[in-house]
Amino acid sequence: MHQFPALLDRKSGTVTVHQDAVEFIPDARTEGRVLKIALSELEVRTAGENRSFFFLSRKGQPSDSISVEDPALITALSRYGYKEAVNILNHASRRWRKRKLLIGGFLATVAVLLFGLPVLISKLPGNWVSRLVSQETESHLGRILISSVQWTVENEGPSQDKLKALVRFLQDKNPELAALQIYVKLNRTSEVNAYALPGGMLFVNSGLILEAQSIEEILGILGHELGHIQERHVLKNIGGNLGLTAGGLLIGLTISPDAMNWIFRGNSIVSLKHSRDHEREADEKGFEYLKRASVSPHGTVQFLDRMQSRELSGKGGTLLSLFSSHPISEERLQAQKDRVIENSYDAKAKIPVTLEELQMAVRGLEIKP
Ligand SMILES: [Zn+2]
Questions:
Q1: Which of 152, 268, 289, 319 is deepest in the core (most CB within 10 A)?
Q2: Are strands 53-58 and 42-47 parallel, antiparallel or unpaired?
Q3: Could you tell me the distance, in angstroms and rounded to a whole number, from the CA of residue 145 to the centre of ligand 1?
Q4: Which of 105-119, 164-178, 197-211, 259-273 has the lowest mean pLDDT?
């Protein structure tokens, strides 16, 4: 015997499931009637959004029905051999399976968005990313990243002009770079490093210029950074780091500049770090740019070699940060050496600026330690 709260003619009461019948008995204080239906005559209809309401009536008399809101009623009926209950239970479990599938599908979609999208973004070719992200958005991101670091940047002057001339020189010799708007700037600090930021911003530290031993070394570094820019690596890193947020941004959701500030400020440092794949890609690109410009790639090898041996000898010092954003692994160095051996190149370029001229312009500036 099982009992459930029930309603009949809007009067509350209790329905009892007996061996061979269901019986409605109204609450003592209401003036309702008693209704007893034999299981052999019972008809059960379900209703409600989740089919959680059950209407019990005698066959052919649907208007005279008892309503119950408890799925356990069906289980109880099935225990007493009410055949229809089995169908109702099956139906309910089919619905549950369907819902489980829906929930599973939803979770899978979320997982794809959270984990798949960043991976997808990091693998997209640079020109695809640039098609998805407006120039304006990219420049805005670059400015946010810049505003989050304390850099002393030269906006004009001889050092600036000479760096511009070197970048222009590489752009003129490489069709894929020619159309890019590159804003190269000297960052006054003794730290040996260079950075590529979204929006075509390329920063070269004065420490790196003073450290170089040939103009080919400088061009090799500029080529590598231009590779990062051309492939939109920082943008892809941001996509990877921020997953859905940046993914939403990349697929065209409108995010206010204030919200972007808030989102990206905290991630600027992470975003400047590149993956090993991106480093390799930038090395390959940089090598191609130099080759097309008829610049010897030996400079790049020498620079990487020198930096690595300094790091190994523990004299990293100010160089350490170079390795944090551009880790020079044995693998990277060897790959560059292999490229030099495997490719024929014609190093006859007339480079518009000499190392001496560039270093002289940089020496004239006050350098932050
Ligand atoms: Zn790099």
A1: 289
A2: antiparallel
A3: 17
A4: 259-273
Residue 274 CA to ligand 1 center (angstroms) comes to: 6
**Pairing mode of beta strands 183-187, 201-205:** parallel
Strand order in the sheet with 42-47: 35-38, 21-26, 11-17, 2-8, 65-68, 53-58, 42-47
Would you list the DSSP string of 45-83? EEESTTS-EEEEEETT-TTSEEEE--THHHHHHHHTT-H
Type of residue numbered 95: R
Domain ranges of the chain: 2-92, 124-363
pLDDT in tens, 278-315: 888 999 999 999 999 999 999 999 998 888 787 776 65
335 CA to middle of ligand 1, Å? 14
Identify the three-state secondary structure at position 121: helix
Residue with tokens 């990349």: 250
CATH of domain 2-92: 2.30.29.30
Q: How far is the CA of 311 from the centre of ligand 1 (A)?
A: 17
pLDDT in tens, 321-333: 444 455 566 788 8
- Tokens linked to 22: 């269901």
* H-state helical runs in 70-116: 72-79, 83-111
Phi, psi of 181 (to 5 degrees): -85, 110
Q: How many CB atoms lie within 10 A of CB 283?
A: 22
